[in-house]
Hints:
By secondary structure, this protein is mainly β. Helix content is 0%, strand content 53%. The strands form 2 sheets. The protein has a 6-stranded antiparallel sheet with strand order 1-2-3-10-5-8, with no helix packed on it. The protein has a 5-stranded antiparallel sheet with strand order 7-6-9-4-11, with no helix packed on it.
Amino acid sequence: MLLLRSEMSPIDFGGLRIFDYTAGQSLDVSVATVEVAPGAGHAEAWSRRSDKYYVVGSGQVRFVLEGEPHTMKAGDFCLVKKGHRFSYSNEGTEPATLILVHAPSFDLGEDVFVG
């Protein structure tokens, strides 16, 4: 399977632009990139289904994992284990990009948003 980003349409998710490379596929994992504009972020949530593997591809994001804030820069990695609360935001002035892998594959119905 080969997918070209130039042929994909992003999903707007509360100000995040998500390119889901494995949408609609019956795969064990899913892969996406997430563009996080300055001021944008992901609300606090946790997954009943998947571990989430994040790599910061560019820029900087503030990750909160189980209540602990961390500043992450390009090349940094964060594992959000199933059942653990997380959120992230771009508090800077430059866009950031995250590479995201879900294992098993992503299912929005299995993510729980806090508040």
